[in-house]
Amino acid sequence: MRPHREAAGGGDRDGAGDDGDAPGDGDGRDGEGAGAGAGEGGPDRSAPEDTRYSAKASGLAHAQLLRYPDGSPVPGDGPGIGTGNGPDVGHGIGRDVGHRVGHEPERIPVTGHNVYVDLAASGTAELVMEGLRAEVLARRPLEPGTVGPAPGPASAPDRCEPVVTPDVEVFLDEDPPLVRRALDGDGAPAWPEFGLPLRLGPGRETRVVLAPHTGDRGLVDWRLIADVTCGGRRSSPQWDFQVTAETGRRSFRTDGGEEPAPAHDATAHWKPAWPPGSSPRPGGDGPYGGETYGRDPHEARYLRSRREGDFVRSVRELLGMRVWLPLGGHGRDFTVAHRDGERLVRAYTSADRAGRLPRPPDEPATVQVRRFADLVRLWRHPEIGLVINPDGESELRIPRSLFHRVIRIQDGGTG
Fold first, then answer.
1. In this structure, what are the phi and psi dihedrals at residue 306, rounded to the nearest 5 degrees?
2. What is the DSSP letter of 61?
3. How far is Cα 189 from Cα 195, in angstroms, rounded to an integer?
4. pLDDT on residue 114
5. What is the C-alpha to C-alpha distance for residues 356 and 22, in angstroms, rounded to an integer?
6. For residues 349 and 299, what is the distance between their CA atoms, to the nearest angstrom?
7. Given its phi and psi angles, is residue 78 left (phi above 0), alpha (psi -120 to 50 degrees) or beta?
8. Main-chain phi, psi angles of 104, to 5 degrees
9. Residue 36: count of CB within 10 angstroms of its CB
10. 28 and 53 in contact (C-beta within 8 Å)?
11. pLDDT of residue 105
12. What's the pLDDT score for residue 403?
């Protein structure tokens, strides 16, 4: 487990809140964005639990671009983007990601930097982060002559806090943005112990590290949203950030020409091993496939309803979801679990969960993806039912005798 997973400290952006679901006191682009909240509404003095928590965001960028306000030219650099010279150009380091004060230049982090979310259950209630989402707010061009690379201690990297391997990758060029567990070179989770929902007991704290990515050489304004509950009360702290793929540096070709330097050639920032659309293994997305967070809010609500043991709510959430059904054997049949004399086909609420099913080493990982609502309506086997997320805390057994109840719920009934 990485050292920062526990007792991560407070981060750089303050803004712990006691109650209320306001998105925060500031803006991540100003270096003071602070998502906070402990449920909805004002303080509940009669509540049996202290539902205070803090959610803070900060970041670390080894490469930043300086953007001068009001179209001011880059001092000493002349026209063009990043025409400065010297060994330190393009290696600026700053902790206030997207920081701007008065007429000082705005610092824009380069793609692949670290964004930190520090969570602390400061009351007596358990804190659960159930999902992470991202939104692109705007895309704007960077005017030539108004931006340049931030100088920094490139010659003394031992004085720099390193950019670390993230828990989560955020792909801002996808529509909608893709937020998923970070993958290593083999297509497996970079940190296998990390997953959502993330639960913190009273008095515990942790840090989640994200790496935002874009190929846009303009300015990308984006928002990060965390869906959390504390003592059963729900809120969604959020923070605004900026990022660019422009490094302000150029690569020179042997023919004398030049071109923009790729962001990951000029920085030590995180580079995705498997961008969206690529595959860790030939013929598929591999056993993990990059579990995504925030794209399907139904799954977060399904997991919560299972913890509460609510069958009807669980089914209602499943009816808005897709499920992954692993195939096995030479006939590539559905895999079956046995529960109290019932035979139940295994189905999972994510590709990652489906990939955890043990299989012979020479048998490739193969799954079918179906809409749960269609799967139940078109089910033809008279005896075999379904089990959702078997062998986990969110397991839901649906024997064949209960399919009629699921269909009633689908048709708007109470089940």
1. -70, -40
2. B
3. 9
4. 93
5. 38
6. 7
7. left
8. -70, 155
9. 23
10. no
11. 75
12. 94
Nearest to 37 by CA among 59, 15, 69: 15
Measured in degrees and rounded to the nearest 5, phi and psi for residue 54 equal -125, 145
CA atoms within 13 A on the CB side of 178: 19
| Residues 164 and 209 sit within 8 Å (Cβ to Cβ) | yes
pLDDT averaged per 10 residues in sequence order, the chain, 415 residues: 39 33 33 32 54 91 76 43 28 36 73 94 92 91 70 44 87 88 82 88 94 92 93 90 85 71 71 73 39 64 86 92 82 84 91 65 68 92 93 90 93 76
Query: In angstroms, rounded to a whole number, what is the distance separating the alpha carbons of residues 203 and 120?
Result: 7
Q: Are 32 and 13 in contact (CB under 8 A)?
A: yes
- The DSSP letter of residue 153 is -
Structure tokens at 274: 């498997």
Q: Helices 311-318 & 403-410, crossing angle to 10 degrees?
A: 70
- Number of other CB atoms surrounding residue 159 within 10 Å: 9
Question: Looking at the chain, how many residues does it have?
Answer: 415
